[in-house]
Amino acid sequence: MKTTHEFTQNDWVVMIEEQAAQALVEANPDIDWPVPVISQYGERVHCWNSERREFTITLSATEIRKVKQSGQ
Asked: Are 65 and 14 within 8 A, CB to CB?
């Protein structure tokens, strides 16, 4: 089965590896998983830090997975 790494605006994503997610939260406690996607440019996925949408973070498309699609 081929894995897709395409995300659209307002998809909600989490890190695939729990340790990587925890490291990001330790570095910045204002990140609240899952996070909403703003846009994607190749492997770079730009997301808001939380539902509050205070600042943006950039994640690798191969290191995240979708938990809720936009419009759901």
From this structure: yes
Cβ burial of 63 (10 Å; 0-12, 13-18, 19+) is middle
CA distances, 66 to each of 27, 49, 56 (Å): 22, 15, 17
Alpha-carbon distances of 5 from 23, 25, 48, 52, 61, rounded to whole Å:
22, 23, 18, 25, 6
Q: Return the ∠ at Cα 53 (arms to 24 and 32), rounded to 5°.
A: 35
pLDDT in tens, the chain (72 residues): 455 689 999 999 999 999 988 998 899 899 999 999 999 999 999 999 998 899 999 999 999 999 987 766
